[in-house]
Amino acid sequence: MSRAVRLVIPAVVAVVLAALAIFNLAQADRGIVRQARDVDGVPMTLFLPADSTSGPQNSRLPAVLVVHGFSGNRQLMYGFGYTLAKNGYVAALIDFAGHGASLDRLPDSFAGDAQYQKLAANIATTLAHLLAQPFVDPERVAILGHSMGASAVSRYGSAHGDVPVTIALSLGNFGRQLPNDPGRPRNFLILVGANEFAGFIQGSTAGLTSAYPDGVPGVTYGNFADGTARRLIYAPGVEHISILFSHDVYREMVRWLDQAFAVGAPDRPVEADSRIGWVLLLYLAAVIGFQPLAATLLRGHAANAMTARSAASGRFVILSALAAAVVAPVLLQFGGALYRWMPLTVGNYVGIYFLIYGLIVGGAYLALRRRGAPAAQRAAAEPGERAAPASLGIVGAAASDFALKPALATLALTAYALVTFGLTAHLTWNNFALVGDRAWVAGVLFACCFVFFLADEWMVARASRRARAGLYALTKLIVIVSLIASVGLFGAPGFLLLLVPVIAVLFLWHGLYSHWLFGMTRRPWIAAVLNAAVFAWVIAATFAVVQY
């Protein structure tokens, strides 16, 4: 099979899969109107049945104000917007202060009650706006929140008896603080993933037993007429993030609202949002399309060398990674000022962790080279593979290693990675916009991430791509274990535990890109630039902007 055919086939497959995914994602908007608004500085997206704004006054619809959790955003809650609109409800999704497209900052969690007061003010402002809409029935408006948002709506609903329905997903510690009154909050549905951390399951269970001490999951207690209805559901097979895409959760939500607001027949079918499958297919198309694009753009740009070189021994790589993975969280434990100057909570910790790790590993690599690599071993190429070049990175590289064409190709591939991941996310399930402070923070994070990825690429670079892949995976595993351990041992933000699966997926996904790029060019800096750009953008766009 010719090289051209080997490139054309995956490119065609990628285009076909992408077209199929885009078509079905577009179909999901049929019968739905989306309206973006700014409500006194709070970004809002309305999801409405297509005929809701033109109907008569007596056809006003029930509505739900939907709020996200910590470091979430309204895009992350789109599944609820689509599901509610498809089943006859108006859904208003907002970005809390410090999240998504909001230009406001969220008070730090250590600032006493100031954080909740800010969240409550956002809820009150947007709830008043929703109640005033001519297509909304002001007597039938519920509030729904996830995680931090679940605590916020539960507390708000407990204090405001005029809120007829409250729905909490992944309710944490505030479940233990709820009043014993079964009518506070009114008609309270609690949903928690069966695979969540124990604290969320216990907090959610306490939300039921605070009002009904003998209550068990799956049973509805009280009645809707006097506002004392309460129900707890352990959503099967999901954890803290995947609960937001669970069809079981969508169905429980709609049926609870139907009962509370007397909408539809008790056994009517619930149309649940199913876009996430098409989003995943679109991402698969992006991965398949990356390899032929990279091969085309980087053709003939392998680093120019004829002889094999020495690479750091596997033992040296592992010891350097272990040392960095221990030192980084220790330094951050005793030096909060190292990262708190960036107003991006949790993200600032991760960024400076990457920087310290990269400086230690990169420093070890440079020291090894200066000593003539006494701890190195000869990197023998596998049969059929070309020898490693004389330069595997920036240090000691020939001038030709930085030719203009590879640099332009790197920019193009980085843009491809950002667009296929970020734009898709922004339009379907997660914010990717860099507004306000997020823009300059992204620049700082890029520098931190570049040091991390370049140092790692230097260390694992070797002629054997199989050996390189194994070391790449091992160093990333060390980082993940270090981040998990740092929460319990070194006082790192506990929210890291919820993000480890996401970080692992990104390491795997872009590790594949890195593997392809190094195999094509033997230039570690190319993959380092691409990975740093994606990780920096994701971190900067996702985490909460806070006021310390």
Can you offer a commentary on this structure?
The structure is a single chain. This protein has 548 residues and is an alpha/beta fold. The chain has 14 helices and twelve strands. The protein is globular. About 6% of the residues have low confidence.
Any key phrases for this structure?
two-stranded parallel sheet, 548 residues, eight-stranded mixed beta sheet, 14 helices, 12% strand, alpha/beta, globular
Short description:
With 548 residues, this protein is an alpha/beta fold. It contains 14 helices and twelve strands.
For the biggest sheet, the summary is: 8 strands, mixed
Gross geometry: globular
Q: What Rg, in angstroms, do the CA atoms define? A: 26 Å
User: What structural class should be given to the helix and strand makeup?
Assistant: alpha/beta
Report low-confidence residues grouped into runs of 5 or more: 305-309, 374-401
User: How much beta, percentage-wise?
Assistant: 5-15%
Report strand order across the widest sheet: 1-2-4-3-6-7-8-9
Instruction: Report the strand count.
Output: 12
Helix content: 40-55%
Series of secondary-structure elements, N-terminal to C-terminal: HEEEHEEHEHEEHEHHEHHEHHHHHE
- Number of helical elements: 14
Cα end-to-end separation: 60 Å
What number is the mean pLDDT?
91
Task: Report the oligomer.
Answer: single chain
